[in-house]
Amino acid sequence: MRLTAVPALVLALVAGCGETRRPIGDECLRGDDCLSSVCSSRTCVSAPTLVTGAGAPPPDEVPRIPIVDGGPSDAPSEGG
User: What's the mean per-residue pLDDT of the chain?
Assistant: First the structure.
């Protein structure tokens, strides 16, 4: 009995230390399941490329503050 238990224990230790994450194209449930750490639609996919400075800059924003010529209407006048 002891002779079969020792090799089984060694095999379990070796299997426990092995890589359990999956390569690109295999099925996954979360990012931790994949070597790339990216799981999309239950499939391991490569990490997205990082693009810096690509494309046109965003357009300037136009403030949506109404312009009133008479100044603030709810502020009290000074000194009076």
Answer: 77
40 C-beta neighbours (distance < 10 Å), count: 13
Q: How far apart are the first and last CA of the chain?
A: 102
Q: Where are the beta strands (DSSP E) in 1-80?
A: 39-40, 43-44
Number of domains in the chain: 1
In a domain, 43, yes or no: yes
Distance, CA of 17 to CA of 75 (rounded, Å): 72
Residue range(s) defining the domain that contains residue 26: 18-48
Q: What is the mean pLDDT of residues 1-25?
A: 73
**Is 67 within the bounds of a domain?**
no
What is this structure's pTM? Answer: 0.42
